[in-house]
Write a structure and sequence with these properties.
This protein is α+β, with helices and mostly antiparallel strands and 408 residues long. It contains 13 helices and 17 strands. The strands form 4 sheets. It has an 8-stranded antiparallel sheet, with helices on both faces. Strands 3-6-4-5 form a 4-stranded antiparallel sheet, with helices on both faces.
Length: 408
């Protein structure tokens, strides 16, 4: 295949040049610019399919697919899954695991919601990686969460009834509207909002697996997903499974690697096979072979003074990978979202229970030592975090259409 690579200049990787027929460096989240360039390229050499594996590009990819009139994920489908309020409205309307929710409530409205529905979760209507997500355990927490939402400049947000139960995700691949459930992943957040571990396959009964598969297929049918990978997060509540969110991409957090290790299929690679001949999964997907798990490394906020135990961790039988993303001198923030984690370990074992246990044991061998950083008083003191300030180094926004409307 010939690849036309559209990417933001700040995110461009020169190592990809030999693999690309054309390179387009542009802020693709500025929709008019992406529109114009895609149309021009399509006139020169017709584009067969638009593929993206990142959350930031989902809406634009769907929009361009429709604009060019080619096969692939539609803007409607991408929007329904990227916009959590749109997805929740659709599911509730169709009776697919109804969950009470409200969009942009006032402080009084937020209080009334918690009084009516109990513990709740607050999150941006568009987003990923657990960024900007807060729990409200009781009415007493409402005022604090409201103040935080204003200081954090959360913008458009929704509140939902807190779902309790095992947290899972379903990894699937669709071809011409037919959905293949490849794997079910079990998650561990240790009671918080940031995911700290995953294991495949999830240790569920066959009845529970059937419930997960049925709910996922109903969701994907409802949003109209035709082709490609999907990552659907679900909580198995006492009333049955409920969708938390879903994405028209393979799962992050190296879930795709765990899937490949256990089931033999690379969903990212399969997405590119859609442009070729034959079925993308044929000859790749096989029954589960053992289990695989990932455990993320965290550290107390502060400056890193030492990282120890890497060699000992890598020497353990069953370890596939040990990676640390901080060095001495790095500053570790509080754990606000997925990118604040400090590294990970990946392991293989005979079953899920053994894989989780091994991942925890190996992660415990790696110690990231920090010491508190004293903030400088006065005008040089760091400004409080906001949603936009955290996203700024990634050159990313949650809503590209908002960028298009505000950019001169």
């Amino acid at each position: 295949m010939d690849v036309v690579y559209m990417q933001k200049p700040s995110q461009f990787d020169p190592a990809l040049v030999p693999h690309c027929e054309q390179l387009v460096l542009v802020d693709y989240q500025h929709v008019p610019s992406a529109d114009a360039l895609a149309a021009a390229l399509h006139r020169i050499a017709p584009i067969t399919r638009i593929v993206t594996q990142t959350e930031a590009a989902q809406l634009v990819a769907g929009h361009l697919t429709d604009a060019l009139g080619i096969a692939g994920t539609s803007e409607r489908c991408a929007r329904l899954l990227h916009d959590k309020s749109a997805m929740r409205a659709l599911l509730n309307e169709r009776g697919i695991g109804t969950v009470p929710y409200a969009v942009n409530p006032t402080q009084a409205g937020l209080r009334e919601f918690v009084i009516s529905h109990g513990a709740a979760i607050v999150k941006p209507t568009k987003g990923s990686g657990s960024l900007g997500v807060r729990r409200i355990e009781s009415v007493e927490d409402v005022d604090d969460v409201w103040v935080w939402s204003q200081q954090f400049e959360l913008g458009e947000f929704q509140v939902e009834k807190l779902l309790t139960g095992p947290e899972l995700s379903v990894e699937s691949f669709s071809e011409s509207g037919r959905h293949t459930i490849i794997a079910v992943t079990a998650k561990d957040t240790e009671g918080g909002t940031v995911e700290l571990g995953h294991v495949i396959p999830a240790p569920l009964s066959e009845e529970q697996l059937d419930q997960m598969r049925e709910l996922t297929v109903r969701l994907l049918d409802a949003v109209g997903l035709e082709d490609g990978p999907a990552h659907t997060e679900i909580i198995l509540t006492a009333e049955g499974p409920r969708v938390v969110e879903s994405h028209t991409r393979r799962g992050g957090d190296r879930i795709n690697d765990l899937v490949k290790m256990v089931y033999g299929v690379d969903m990212e690679e399969a997405a590119y096979r859609l442009v070729g001949q034959g079925a993308p999964l044929d000859g790749h997907l096989h029954p589960a072979r053992g289990a695989a798990a990932i455990r993320f490394l965290t550290a107390a906020p502060g400056a890193v003074t030492a990282v120890t135990g890497l060699d000992a961790a890598r020497a353990v039988d069953g370890v596939v990978e040990v990676s640390v993303g901080v060095d001495v001198g790095s500053v570790v923030p509080e754990l606000r979202w997925s990118d604040d984690r400090c590294g990970h370990v990946i392991v293989r074992a005979d079953d899920a229970e053994a894989a989780v246990r091994l991942a925890r044991e190996v992660a415990a061998r790696v110690e990231i030592i920090t010491e508190p950083v004293t903030d400088c008083p006065g005008p040089d003191a760091a400004a409080p975090d906001t949603l936009s300030s955290i996203l700024r180094p990634y050159d990313e926004v949650f809503d590209p259409y908002q960028v298009s409307m505000t950019t001169p």
